Amino acid sequence: MSLTNASPSRFDAPGHPPATTTEFQGVRSLHLGTSWVQGAMRLAKPDNIELEYVQMMMMWLLFNDRPRHIVQLGLGSAALTKFCYRRLPDARVTAVELNPNVIAICNAQFGLPPNDGRLNVMEMNAMDFVLDPANHGSVDILQVDLYDEEARGPVLDSPEFYQACFDCLSDGGIMTTNVFGDFANYDKNLQAMELVFDAVVWLPEVHDANIVVIAFKQSPVLDFSVLYERAGAIKKSLNLPAKSWVNGLKGWMLDQQ
């Protein structure tokens, strides 16, 4: 999430904020009718994850490299959804997005593939998805990035919401979430997650005050030699800066002592 100058390309079905794009130095950015950047794509590398904090949302790979079902709450520019779909061919990928304008612009301008046997982009409220008992226990990885056009903080951040996220996770499931906005949001969200999850870790902010949190249904054993080894494999196979994630986890551990 960051600020930039907005421009004309619009998808604006009524009842929801319009989805608009800007382009600068080869990067196309998504906006919801305001100057806040809600996602980005480098035109020369449309299936890569452009923004560093969005890359960090993939740090669950350090703990699970073979998820069966990945769910994204909040489609953004579809960067995470596309990456998981293209680069993790054994996984089913579900994305939940309330705003039909966002889905339309991702299909038209951000290279989002059509739904198929592995990919399901659903137009619905994320709260309805996580509260649905049919989804409980069915998700290995949950990625949460829920912002409206004002970007003051996550639109869903109650203990009830995070409990429902927890309920959706399978045994050993992991949630990553982006916390951004007014300073009070950080404590509110972290406390709500800590009420529910067995372990909650946050990494230092990397981009315009976005903080990425990783929350575990069951607390993992943090063996840093193993994590650095996994980080090397992730860098090699997926070209993600996973060593920096391990450094962040290590820094967090030292801060807690």
Automatic annotation (TrEMBL):
<protein>
    <submittedName>
        <fullName>Spermidine synthase</fullName>
    </submittedName>
</protein>
<dbReference type="InterPro" id="IPR029063">
    <property type="entry name" value="SAM-dependent_MTases_sf"/>
</dbReference>
<keyword id="KW-0620">Polyamine biosynthesis</keyword>
<dbReference type="Pfam" id="PF01564">
    <property type="entry name" value="Spermine_synth"/>
</dbReference>
<feature type="region of interest" description="Disordered">
    <location>
        <begin position="1"/>
        <end position="22"/>
    </location>
</feature>
<dbReference type="GO" id="GO:0006596">
    <property type="term" value="P:polyamine biosynthetic process"/>
</dbReference>
